[in-house]
Amino acid sequence: MKWLIVTGDDFGISRGVNRGIVEAHLGGIVTSTSLMVDRPACEEAVALAREHPTLSVGLHLELDGVAPEDVPGEIERQHTRFVDLVGSAPTHVDTHHDVHRDPRILSHLLPWGRRVGVPVRGHSGVRHFSKFYGQWGGETHFEQIGVEGLLRLLDTEVGEGMTELNCHPGYVEPGFPSSYAAEREVELRTLCGPGLRRAILERGIRLIGFRDLPALAAAGSTASVSGDAA
Predict the structure, then answer these.
(1) Helices and strands, number each (H, E), in the chain
(2) What is the rounded CA–CA span in Å between residue 6 and residue 30?
(3) Is the pLDDT of residue 226 over 80?
(4) How far apart are the C-alpha atoms of 111 and 118, rounded to whole Å?
């Protein structure tokens, strides 16, 4: 079986992104999202998540510029705020700009993830790929995030077992705090594209969220998803 989790990053960064992620969940293929707990629209994001309990909500840690010795405390702080806001533990954890690729951050995040039982992006039984992105070499490439581009990625990147694809759908408002802006609305249209769900099903891929993993593991459908990847 091929299982695919589609995670919308940056939940809480702005109201437009919140709206886009929920729209991509209800009318598209997004199954999970990752919350930024220190952004202006995070409380609105939490309220939206409560209205749509089928959307898995994880923690999108912001650790850019944090000194390595301060990383453990910052992980704990953001996790505590997440639990206070959401009222439950995150279904998964990842980082803004994937900064946990830095060994100095990863060396703290992995032990924390094992201790609290939360899968860390790219370091669990769920394989991760991040090629669905519309900027490369400082230039915009809308063809990378169209429906055809997405289906080509699924054909080459999704194999047997568990795979996570992350994405950045959303609506862009004036003053949006990211250079990845117009691409978000293109991603949103792609993820909600007519016929996309059927095309995914025809490829033998089943869409699931991170919140589904414990039940699947208990049923013997998947291997353990916490801890380091093999």
Answers:
(1) 8, 9
(2) 5
(3) no
(4) 10
The pairing of beta strand 205-207 with beta strand 2-11: parallel
* CA–CA distance, 113 with 41 (Å, rounded to integer): 26
* Strand 139-140 with 93-95, pairing: unpaired
HSE toward the beta carbon, residue 195, CA cutoff 13 A: 4
Indicate if the alpha-carbon torsion angle 19, 26, 56, 63 is positive or negative: negative
**Calpha distance 187→168 (Å, rounded):** 7
- Picking from 162, 171, 92, the residue whose alpha carbon sits closest to that of residue 127 is 162
Whether 211 has a pLDDT exceeding 90, the answer reads yes
| Confidence check: pLDDT of 223 > 70 | no
Residue type, 230: A
Identify whether the C-beta of residue 164 lies closer than 8 Å to the C-beta of residue 128: yes
